[in-house]
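Handout, page 2. Input:
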Amino acid sequence: MSEKPVAIVLGGIVPHKNLLEKLKKRGYFTILIDYFENPPAAEAADLHLRESAMDKDAVLAAAKKYGAELVLCTCLDQQIGIACQVAEELGLPHPYSYEKALEVTNKEKMKKIMWENGIPTSRYFSVHDVSEVHDAGLHFPIMVKPADSCGSAGIKKVFCPEEVFAAVENALHWSRSHTAVVEEFVEGVEVSVYTFIAEHKAHVLLTSQRFSKLGEDGSCIKCYASIAPAAVSDQVAADMEKLGTRIAEVFGLDNTAMFYQCMVKDGEIKVIEFAPRISGGICFRTIEENTGFDIINAAIDSWIGNPVHMEYHRPQMYNMTQQIHALPCVFDHIEGAKQLKEQGILDTLFLHKTKGAHMGDDKASSARVAAALVRTKDRSALPSLARRVVEGLTVYDENGKDVSVRGLYLQEKDIRS
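Output:
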């Protein structure tokens, strides 16, 4: 048993590597719980337990066995509920109750509360069985989503009534609570708004425009790139801050990271969904580089109950995250990053997968192998840089075969739209 205080982190994704490193600097003995053999964050942990971070009993048993003083998850949706539940049972610190965690990680509960409190969002209904599907007067196209799944699994855009039942059945399959949400599709520019809630105010640290593509059958929505900050007017930016503060007020959130996804059209904002956490991508890095605010350290303070000092500045650069995708395979390695860095094109390559990981196409995260970070002051140069990154990186499988997907990258038409 370690003489240091023990902190258990749920989920071995890229930003949790940074979380584990910062916990070590604070004097913690760190334990990662993740069922994959070699997730990206594992090398930063003092101990890696190959258990499911979604198995509440396994997490609770580990926390008791190692005498954990902290059980946390800062960047994954469903695992936050497990962390809060275990922390609550053991009397450990956590930023909000397990009941609150359920409200903000279940889309049915979230949409109901937003709708009842006047937070602008799309019209919807929820079902627990395909027999409950009804004509609610929603205008097509519509989105069908599991109420609680990971990695965009089970989400489908539906264009006609004949497709609804199959889409709902699929969403129910992916939902842990066997619940599906059916909502109107909202047109506009998709923006992620990254905030930190301090003293009941949403401080907008950074905005990011997301670029996504649907699979051929309308499912498996893949975000292939994002640009931060997003190209929004000063008025929309001010409205985003007010809306973030309103969400925090309605859900009773304070002293926590929070981001929300929204659609912006003609100056109007409609919330798709939100989460009182850090996004699971590499926004932890782009936020700090663009604003000077260390959101991972702030999240640790949030979990242990320390007040967070809000000091940050406006972005000075454009940060583009170009996602690197691969065909279904067993991943081995990527080549080309060194040359792109030497050419001044690539800032950093973050691997979502490690050697031996199975790549799939059943959900958005299954096909993403890496995130390439590009920085520039010239927004118009981003499509050219994205193309050079995708062409310059080669993904290989365990047999040495090139399994790169080169058609998904930011293009000029994206930034003109």
